Structures are given as structure tokens and as C-alpha cells.
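Is this the right way to post C-alpha cells for a design question? Let me know if I should format differently. Anyway, here goes:
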């Protein structure tokens, strides 16, 4: 039997359409199917004409009941849903089912294969679940154990009988502190990856910079951290993790600094809807051939005291906010050999963020 509209142009479209097209009568029996539809379920046309919708519906998904009834189609004229069918070879096929009712009690269904899309979504959901477990471990179990190690190391440090073991206690304390910092950054990365699209809101950059400056200054009292930022609110489109961007940049500037007194200067300038924050230090600088790679996942210098993922977190967050981040040499423009400037001029980390109107 021909499709309802039997003119030649319709038949050509019906036969050549890349989307599976099925025609079903009021009892759910197949009346016609195009080649794409036959390929979708693995049956040839003659086989399908002896079958009904329920023959290829998946019982545990109850695909037959998901198919729109003629009553539903009478009410709305068209129904679009997702159903699962069983291929002749036995595997499952997820399809987007778009059905309309036509004259003489027939239903035309357009079916697009979305199996790969559904599998991808399922993998993402599984990965998010696994990431949630990892985040839970970093937030509680591992961090709590490290806090215990740090506490006992502090007790040993203050014990008079520690004696020659003092050096080892110091190493334990430093390693435990390093590991705690790693769990903190890893937890923040997990939170970024678990965050759904959107959720950005105006955040005051000025207050954020000052809060992080004070916190890092208290953690590293030997450093000299200054800030030249306008004494007014500068709202940027971000979320509650904005502080992590500048906390990691400031810690990076101290931890990688080989000067007797680490000096870090924070400046911010706003122009044409973009605010540019510069974090400059008097450390060894970053060689030109490493300026891109240092933002990579897990990249760190051999002598680094950092976690190796802090700058990766910085870039991930900044890109989430629709901004950009890069590193320059502080001494660029002063003349002289470029490699010499990179080695002695210090580094400048530049963050550009859109302002929130």
C-alpha cells in the first residue's frame, strides 16, 4: 500500500528520506515503511507489513505504551517523544518518535536514531556520579586523614624529645600541607565539572581580590602583596568560585618565587565591558616556550611547591566565565635578550573577564 499522499514527489521524499518513516493503522499494524525505517529496525518492508508496533517495542521500557494513542493525537494533532525499539539483531535502538495522525485512521511516524546521543548522555551521567564520589572523598575522607597527620606532626614538632627527628617532622608537615592543598584544588575542579551550564551572576571583583590578597598574605607573611584596584565595585559574570582563580594565581606567584622577599602586585583596569587583572611578581618568570603549557592539566615545574593543577583550575574557571588568561614576562619592553628577560624579569599573569552589566 502506498503512503497516504501517493503523488510521485511525495513518494520520492518517502523513499529517499534519511529519517525512518513508518505508516501505522489504528490497530498499530505497519502499513508502510521507507528504506531508512527498515534499516533502523533491521526488518525488510514485507516483514514489517506483517508486524505491529508492539512486536518491536521493548517490554521493560514499555515502548508500546509510549507510542501516542489516536485519542492523544486527536487532542494535540502531533506527539513527540523518545521510545526504545528492539532491532531484529537483538540490540536496542533509541529513537526520537515524531507522530502525526492523518486521514482514514492512520498514523505517520518519523523516527530519528538517537542511540549514540543517549549512550553519550548515559556515559556523562555515569562520569558525573563517579566524579561526585571522588569529590566526596576529597572533601571528607582524604582531607580528614591529612588533617590528623598534620595534627600529630605538630605535636611531635613541639615535643622536647623529638631531637634529631625534628627534620623528618618538618618534612611530614610540609608534605601533608602540600597534599591538603592538592585535595582542595582537586575538590574545586570536581565542583566545576559537576556544575551545570549557567549559574553565573554578578560578583564584585574588587571585594574578591581584596579577600584573596588578605588570605594569601596571612598564609605567606614573608611575601609583600600589594593591590592597586579602584575603590568601587566591579561586577563580573562569575560564581562563588571566582576567588579560587586569584587565590591560585597569588599562591603560584609566591610558591614559584626565588627572591628573598616575594613581591606581588595586583592591578585591575576596566575598559569596553572587559576588566583586566594583572598579577605581577618578582620571581624567575616563565620561559616563552612554557607559557601555554603551564595551564595544562597536571603541569608543574620540577622544583614547584604547588599542586600542579592550580593553573589548570584557573583556566577552567576563567573560560567558564567567558574570559581569558595568559602569562607574560614582567620585563618585556625593557630591551635586552628575551631569554634573559624571561629568566629574571618576573611573571605577569593576566586575566580578562567580561563585566556584568
Amino acid at each position: 500500500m502506498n503512503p497516504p499522499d501517493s503523488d510521485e514527489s511525495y513518494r520520492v521524499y518517502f523513499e529517499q528520506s534519511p529519517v525512518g518513516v513508518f505508516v501505522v493503522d489504528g490497530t498499530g499494524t505497519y502499513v508502510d515503511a521507507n528504506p531508512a525505517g527498515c534499516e533502523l529496525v533491521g526488518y525488510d518492508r514485507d516483514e514489517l507489513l506483517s508486524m505491529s508496533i508492539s512486536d518491536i517495542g521493548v517490554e521493560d521500557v514499555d515502548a508500546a505504551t509510549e507510542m501516542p494513542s489516536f485519542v492523544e493525537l486527536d487532542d494535540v494533532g502531533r506527539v513527540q517523544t523518545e521510545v526504545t525499539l528492539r532491532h531484529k539483531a537483538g540490540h536496542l535502538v533509541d529513537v526520537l518518535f515524531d507522530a502525526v495522525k492523518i486521514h482514514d485512521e492512520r498514523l505517520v511516524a518519523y523516527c530519528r536514531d538517537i542511540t549514540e546521543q543517549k549512550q553519550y548522555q548515559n556515559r556523562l551521567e555515569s562520569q558525573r556520579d563517579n566524579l561526585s564520589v571522588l569529590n566526596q572523598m576529597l572533601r571528607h575522607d582524604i582531607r580528614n586523614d591529612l588533617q590528623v597527620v598534620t595534627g600529630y606532626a605538630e605535636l611531635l614538632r613541639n615535643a622536647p624529645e623529638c631531637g634529631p627527628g625534628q627534620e623528618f617532622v618538618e618534612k611530614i608537615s610540609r608534605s601533608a600541607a602540600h597534599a591538603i592543598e592538592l585535595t582542595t584544588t582537586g575538590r574545586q575542579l570536581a565542583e566545576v565539572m559537576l556544575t551545570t551550564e549557567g549559574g553565573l551572576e554578578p560578583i564584585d571583583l574588587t571585594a574578591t581580590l581584596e579577600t584573596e590578597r588578605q588570605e594569601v598574605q596571612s598564609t605567606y607573611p614573608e611575601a609583600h602583596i600589594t593591590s592597586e584596584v579602584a575603590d568601587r565595585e566591579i561586577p563580573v559574570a562569575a560564581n562563588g568560585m571566582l576567588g579560587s582563580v586569584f587565590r591560585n594565581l597569588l599562591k603560584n606567584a609566591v610558591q614559584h618565587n626565588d627572591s628573598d622577599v616575594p613581591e606581588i602586585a595586583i592591578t585591575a583596569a576596566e575598559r569596553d565591558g572587559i576588566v583586566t587583572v594583572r598579577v605581577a611578581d618578582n620571581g624567575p618568570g616563565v620561559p616563552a616556550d612554557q607559557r601555554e603549557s603551564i595551564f595544562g592539566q597536571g603541569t608543574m615545574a620540577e622544583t614547584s611547591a604547588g599542586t600542579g593543577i592550580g593553573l589548570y583550575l584557573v583556566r577552567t574557571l576563567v573560560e567558564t566565565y567567558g574570559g581569558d588568561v595568559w602569562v607574560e614576562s614582567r620585563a618585556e619592553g625593557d630591551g635586552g635578550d628575551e631569554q634573559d628577560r624571561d629568566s629574571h624579569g618576573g611573571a605577569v599573569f593576566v586575566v580578562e573577564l567580561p563585566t556584568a552589566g
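Format looks fine. Someone answered above. Worth noting: Residues 198-357 form a domain with the Heat Shock Protein 90 fold (CATH 3.30.565.10). The chain has two domains: 8-113, 198-357.
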